[in-house]
Amino acid sequence: MTMLHLAVIFLFSALSRTLVQCSSHRARVVLSWTDYLKRVAPTALATALDVGLSNWSFLYITVSLYTMTKSSAVLFILIFSLIFKLEELRAALVLVVLLIAGGLFMFTYKSTQFNMKGFSLVLGASFIGGIRWTLTQMLLQKAELGLQNPIDTMFHLQPLMFLGLFPLFAVFEGLHLSTSEKIFRFQDTGLLLWVLGSLFLGGILAFGLGFSEFLLVSRTSSLTLSIAGIFKEVCTLLLAAHLLGDQISLLNWLGFALCLSGISLHVALKTLHSRGEGGSRPLKGLSSSPDLELLLRSSQPEDEDNEEEDYFVAQGQQ
């Protein structure tokens, strides 16, 4: 499922790049092999493992337990943001980490549908997700790479993500898939089309999700992306409880509430911090287009050179 989603995302991103290039008459960025393997490969591998382990865990745990555990990704994003110096260590951040960690313990403690293997897979995905989104933020916000546009980022990430997941796919699912009567050894054409259609629809949703996530990270930070998922987590838990019959105890809900309180505290702190530095990044608010931001960055040295040249010409004329 994940492999097909990656293929669909790559197809749509390549198509989008072609349409934008035809309409704007400007060539899209294509990284050199050196930059591609050095800058993009670590992010692609971490992303592939995050997505792969997350989907794998659904074989063992419920949607509600997955959602609760995956929300701990903000904890690891905080840690790696501190390691890569994207965030400053403050006492408030320590409090946020303690609240989230305590909430994680409470909403997994004596869960009625707890599965250690599935929980370990999700927790591993959350840990790798912290690395993934920290590297993604660094990738998107490096002006010299020119990957501020989410379409360009997804176009460069998907091939390496596909290759990164292929060994896991071949070892654990290759034989099963090749002998499945729903795919390669199908006997019912209608069933095959239904399976492929469902997977293709999931790929389209994954493309939209990836675009919005990368756009948000390019504008703000990986922490903001994780925090913005509060509303999504609540909706997912409610739907899982009402539609799928997932059992959530009072202790689990209290733990989740504690975790959300830590995330909400970080929202407030991030908002106050961004207001305090509102005037330090004038370039970021000049335009809503990442391409125009890059154009403005590259044109600034030329403008300064032109001003110096005009000055010396005026001096000579005098």
From TrEMBL:
| Segments for region (Disordered) | 297-318
Subcellular location as annotated: Membrane
Question: By what name is this protein known?
Answer: Sugar phosphate transporter domain-containing protein
Any Pfam family hit:
TPT
Q: Where is the composition biased (Acidic residues)?
A: 301-311
Annotated GO CC locations: membrane
Q: Which UniProt keywords are present, listed alphabetically?
A: Membrane, Signal, Transmembrane, Transmembrane helix
Q: Which domain of life is it from?
A: Eukaryota
Question: What is the organism field in this record?
Answer: Marmota monax
